[in-house]
Amino acid sequence: MQRRDVVDTKRAFRDDRVQKLVMADEKPIVGRTKHGELTLDQIAELQPGLGTLMRDVSDRYWIAYYAAKGGNWDLAAYQLRGVRSLFKKGNLTRPKYKGMVENYTKKILDPLDQHVAAKNFAEFEQTYRAGIELANKLHAATDHSEIVWKLPPNPPQHLDLGPTA
After folding, report:
1. Helix intervals (H) in the chain
2. pTM score > 0.85 for this model?
């Protein structure tokens, strides 16, 4: 089966599922706002893909590093929780990557959380850099070798990254 056939089969399956959601009066299920109506399919299409979510993951991962380095462990923990939240959204909207995301979470985010709790920057940095390597390998494994993430050389200027009182 060629890729095109797979896509057409998936589309037909999706269209069949949508037909089953049509109400008895043959009108599709809609959501209403003050601006108009949206079908369930239109609402589903509005959900962000991983590309959109990964921009936010990138920012949060960047901030977490410099927060930990600066001793703002609460901010580092907050940013890592944000990465997890974004991953949950990604798993929902793009379930085919769920295994990769869960693997990354287990190998990288779980240990980072432990290093933040222990306030151990040396271990945090080692795991953090391993996370960059793994992320770039995962990009290549998903046919996105053009995406090579690297830690920006400077901390974000819009946040206080020093220790909290």
Report:
1. 3-21, 40-45, 50-70, 73-93, 98-104, 110-118, 121-141
2. no
